[in-house]
Amino acid sequence: MIARSLRIMSSRCVVVIGLCVLASGARADNNNDKSPGVSAAVKVDWRHPGPPFEGWGTALAWFAHVSGRFAEPHRTQLADLLYGPEGLALNIARYNIGGGNAPDTPPYLRPGGDVPGFWRKPGADGWNPDADDAWDWSADAGQRWWLDAIKTRVAPRDLILEAFSNSPPYFMTRSGLVSGNVNGLEDNLLPGFETQFARYLARVTAELERRHGIRFRTLSPINEPNTPYWFSTNKQEGAHWSPEGQSRMFVALAQVLKQQGMTTEIAGPDETNPQTFFVDWAGLSADAKAVIRQINVHTYEWIAKSGVRDIAETSGKRLWMSEVDLSPSNVREDINDMRPAIALAQQIVTDINSMNPRAWVLWQAIENRSSDPKNSSNWGLIKADFSNLERPEYQITKKFWAFANFTRFIRPGYRFLKSDHPDALVAENPETNEVVIVAVNPGIVSRILDIRLPDTKRGKLTCKTFITQANDSLATSKPASCAARLTVHSRPMSVVTVVATPQK
């Protein structure tokens, strides 16, 4: 089924949400849910708001390399779904600077994972980044299409772009492949090639900025470095970096950026989980830590997230949750299954409440549709057919709508407030005093949440609710007058968002 426009899909599922506003006596009950529910008070602390939130985003690898070459109108529809104001309204994108295997290497990388590099094949004298004929600026047309599409959909004040690398080009690696060393526990960059690789990354960053009229605020040179993932027979680009190797790379990149007069900041190390990040950070040299302006961490494990927040605060670094996605175990690919949507929503709530990151970025928003139901998953927000560029059917999942419960309403500049409920996220617009509450119910029992908004002196409010559950996708209620104490009916297996706006 080819997805229709977002507006058409939303208009089919407008219902009344179960929101009870105690101060005004207004009430809209869910007659289909007769369970008594579990009551819980949600205390919100407005005295110590977090730093201004920078927004939501996705990595463009690998889906953009494929979908940016889709026939029209498909790729434009997908860009509207992800970055348009009536879609998810994302404002952050992470552009993958491909390494690229040798032209004569038999194809073996996963669909979309074969992101091309911008180099031309080295000659007998090697590869000289100062030579004009060393570069191919026509490469990676798919991802570059997305850069232009995003630029036209996101306001300049909100747009944040980051460039990142998974592997050096093949001719800078020990194995001669961009998927890793033969031994996945050994570094794959050739000894002494840190400056050469840094010059490659810096030149690509600068050239893309010039050609597309954009700016990459940050550049992350390594990805999930201190892991056993990246071995030569892997199906995607990757490279192992020991903490010592990471240190040399960060320092070399800082020197190259300075020499070329670039203001691009360095981000890293984009480690796979907090505990491995701790090992990296402890092993980095003082010089390497000094040049990193933004700490990027992935949250593919739930353990020790708050420890990342502590490092960011004590070091004075900006912190991003720069990559994650998930598919619950034993849940096969099914666009209508709420379990992946609930898992994503809980991931977001836990990441933000535990880490207090300045941004939250999904791995890749569009995933290749599975051809084998027995070995499928629910990664991604949209499932598309990567094999058919001319007629690429795609489907929107429940995860997409659950993500929209956050991205549509918690916008750049909002500040997160502390809540004592593990499944609730609260944010405030400091300019308008609008408050957004997102409540996730992962179980099969209703919850009645007694929420007291932060500042009873605001006066009357207008509340509007949005719910994603089995039969609804961001379904909307009519605005209702309310005050600073709310009772929110959090239904089983649902994500509900309440937007409380002060009345003028």
Structure commentary:
The protein is an alpha/beta fold. The chain folds into 2 domains: 13-50 and 417-502, Immunoglobulin-like (Sandwich), CATH 2.60.40; 55-412, Alpha-Beta Barrel (TIM Barrel). It contains 11 helices and 23 strands. The protein has helices at 6-11, 63-67, 74-83, 141-153, 194-212, 243-259, 274-283, 286-291, 305-315, 338-355, 398-407, and strands at residues 19-21, 38-42, 44-45, 55-59, 92-97, 160-165, 216-220, 265-271, 292-298, 318-323, 359-364, 366-368, 382-384, 394-396, 415-419, 424-428, 435-441, 447-452, 461-469, 472-476, 480-482, 485-490, 494-502. Strands 3, 15, 16, 17, 19, 20, 21 and 23 form an 8-stranded antiparallel β-sheet that branches. Residues 56-267 form the Endo-beta-1,6-galactanase-like domain. Keywords: Signal. This is Endo-beta-1,6-galactanase-like domain-containing protein.
Number of strands: 23
The percentage of residues in β strands lies in 15-25%
The CATH topology of the largest domain, please? TIM Barrel
Number of helices: 11
Helix content: 10-25%
Q: Outline the low-pLDDT stretches.
A: 1-31
Query: How many structural domains?
Result: 2
What is the distance, rounded to the nearest whole angstrom, between the alpha carbons of the first and last residues?
A: 44 Å
Morphology:
globular
Identify the quaternary structure here: single chain
Q: Write the CATH architecture name of the largest domain.
A: Alpha-Beta Barrel
Structural class: alpha/beta
Mean pLDDT: 91
Largest sheet: 8 strands, antiparallel
Q: According to CATH, what is the class of the largest domain?
A: Alpha Beta
CATH evolutionary superfamily of the largest domain: Glycosidases
Radius of gyration: 23 Å
